[in-house]
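Whiteboard transcription, Tuesday session. T.W. wrote the structure tokens on the left side:
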């Protein structure tokens, strides 16, 4: 099948015919939900057992002991496990940046565009001793972020309600996660009406501004993990090339990482581009280091 208009042109320019066809199938089909067991509040084995006892089927992924595809998940939001924050519904692809950033005890980490908090709380669960600050400019979305932090037991995370582009560069961080505002082109499921050229150009402009700010906020030797749920090269490889022109060096994400996830060829070696399919959203992740 052929995708509409500008989207078709952007994707055919960036990918092979075989990759394009795989993308088109992934964007036009159905996608199962997935969940992360929130280890800040619950153990994995007992939580999975409780879910299964209620009739839900889960399929583990190879790259995480607490992340599962959900098979036939209708009704999961009414379970005590969901309502209490012992599980969090989150796309498989969107959990990946938390693993790439590898949070460690005592590290200062900024999540630049944090709401609704899926990646923030994933980092907190991976390393409760990391010093995480979550930034969100939209007041309504910031309230949702605060709600999720409390619900999932990540209340040590600090929250700033402001535009990350306006942060004082005297603040310095060991690591920054920038899950940038984007077109969302990797998430569509047959309805492409949300996409427009204006959204595409605005997204690219905002991404460049945020990357420049992120590099200014990093300590020397600090790392930036950049991600989008887009498949367009200008939002992904183009953003990495812009960061490299500002002095950043790409740190390769190993080919062995995220085994089983469907990959696409990216324009920048060492980055990760996930092909949309029945389990994964289209997604991009890059890891960069400030000199």
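and on the right, the sequence the group agreed on:
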């Amino acid at each position: 099948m052929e995708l509409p208009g500008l989207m078709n042109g952007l994707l055919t320019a960036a990918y092979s015919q075989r990759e394009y066809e795989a993308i088109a199938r992934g964007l036009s089909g159905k996608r199962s939900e997935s969940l992360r067991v929130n280890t800040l509040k619950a153990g994995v084995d007992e939580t999975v057992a409780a879910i299964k006892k209620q009739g839900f089927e889960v399929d583990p992924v190879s790259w995480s002991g607490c992340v599962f595809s959900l098979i036939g998940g209708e009704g999961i939001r009414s379970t005590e496990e969901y309502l209490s924050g012992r599980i969090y519904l989150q796309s498989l692809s969107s959990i990946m940046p938390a693993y790439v950033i590898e949070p460690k005890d005592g590290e200062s980490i900024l999540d630049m565009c944090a709401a609704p908090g899926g990646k923030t709380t994933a980092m907190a669960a991976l390393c409760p001793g990391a010093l995480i600050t979550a930034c969100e400019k939209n007041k309504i979305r910031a309230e949702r972020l605060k709600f999720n932090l409390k619900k999932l037991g990540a209340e040590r995370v600090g929250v700033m309600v402001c535009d990350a582009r306006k942060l004082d560069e005297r603040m310095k961080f060991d690591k920054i996660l920038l899950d940038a505002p984007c077109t969302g082109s990797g998430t569509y499921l047959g309805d492409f009406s949300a996409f427009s050229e204006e959204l595409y150009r605005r997204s690219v402009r905002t991404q460049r501004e945020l990357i420049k700010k992120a590099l200014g906020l990093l300590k020397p030797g600090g790392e930036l993990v950049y991600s989008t749920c887009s498949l367009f090269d200008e939002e992904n490889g183009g953003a990495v090339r812009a960061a490299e022109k500002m002095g950043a060096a790409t740190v390769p994400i190993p080919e062995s990482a995220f085994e089983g996830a469907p990959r696409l060829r990216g324009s920048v070696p060492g980055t990760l581009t996930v092909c949309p399919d029945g389990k994964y959203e289209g997604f991009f992740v890059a890891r960069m280091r400030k000199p």
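Someone added at the bottom: Residues 197-217 form the longest helix (21 residues).
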